[in-house]
Amino acid sequence: HRIPSGKNNSDQTDKPVVFLMHGLLCSSADWVNIGPEKSLAYILADAGYDVWMGNARGNTWSRKHITYNPNRHSKFWKFSWHEIGTIDLPTMIDYVLEKTGKQQLFYVGHSQGTTSFFVMGSERPEYNEKIKLMVALAPIAYMSHMTNPFFQIVAIFSNSLDWILSFLGVDEFLPKSGLFDLIGQAACNNESVFQDVCASVLFMICGWNSEQLNKTMIPVIMSNSPAGASTKQIIHYGQEITSGKFRQYDHGIISNLVTYGSITPPDYPVEDITAPVGLFYSGNDWLSAITDVHDFENRLPNVALSYIIPNRKFNHLDYLWAIDVKSHVYDRMMALMELYL
């Protein structure tokens, strides 16, 4: 999806290009959910950027394939964020650059949108030259210190989940459903006594911060999320937690020997990520822990900024939906981007 111009700059030519990549179970809709005054995509467009928004393979907007039908063919779902980073992101970036006639673009990723970029920068290092600046909101690479209860459980069973789910024929995780739309509209609206319960479900995923959640937006958020993912994306994160490493998918000893020539998957060579990277992270993020971000930061060769959000309650999804996200994050982020224009 694309927003080529803002409210007052439709005649502006030669705009800088920015590519936004969402997180796990999200979609391009999450960059516009909270309206034109606070959503990042609109803010960047109004600031004079040509805004492009990607969609990860398998989500609501990315379910077509020349051979496989995602509703019928299990082979469609044989991917994790490794394939998104090594195949899909480079393809989308090349498409945007071709359409705009540019040589470089800004990249802004959130959560899995950062993971897949780090995979691309490591495994397809030639793409670093196409990036003016990479902005990582809630960056995820190393995950040893994350405190999310769901992923802690996934990590415990990550070695067996793959074959169990494959045996059961479970390939897709939380696809977009009319049921979530119905729940959002009926149970999470302003008149509902269950609105606080809806908010609590979001907090259980990402960390508690009731002060920054506009509850009236919950039905809108739930109308677009969750947007679906492959079970292998979930399992791959669980493996990261268990191993304490940022490395490729663990297929098991035999398959690893066939695929990698070793019994364990290779680590991603993050030292090859030469594009300038701005890291934005927070103390109440249950997925992107400060200790893990610092561990990753120390391995990167070109850190443009390492910025911890001053609000100590800021959580993983506040980067998208917080009431004060512009002052807490976007203003500082855009000031950094201006240095690379």
TrEMBL record:
<dbReference type="GO" id="GO:0016042">
    <property type="term" value="P:lipid catabolic process"/>
</dbReference>
<keyword id="KW-0378">Hydrolase</keyword>
<keyword id="KW-0442">Lipid degradation</keyword>
<protein>
    <submittedName>
        <fullName>Hydrolase</fullName>
    </submittedName>
</protein>
<dbReference type="GO" id="GO:0016787">
    <property type="term" value="F:hydrolase activity"/>
</dbReference>
<keyword id="KW-0325">Glycoprotein</keyword>
<keyword id="KW-0732">Signal</keyword>
<dbReference type="Pfam" id="PF00561">
    <property type="entry name" value="Abhydrolase_1"/>
</dbReference>
<dbReference type="InterPro" id="IPR029058">
    <property type="entry name" value="AB_hydrolase_fold"/>
</dbReference>
<comment type="similarity">
    <text>Belongs to the AB hydrolase superfamily. Lipase family.</text>
</comment>
<feature type="domain" description="AB hydrolase-1">
    <location>
        <begin position="16"/>
        <end position="162"/>
    </location>
</feature>
<dbReference type="InterPro" id="IPR000073">
    <property type="entry name" value="AB_hydrolase_1"/>
</dbReference>
<keyword id="KW-0443">Lipid metabolism</keyword>
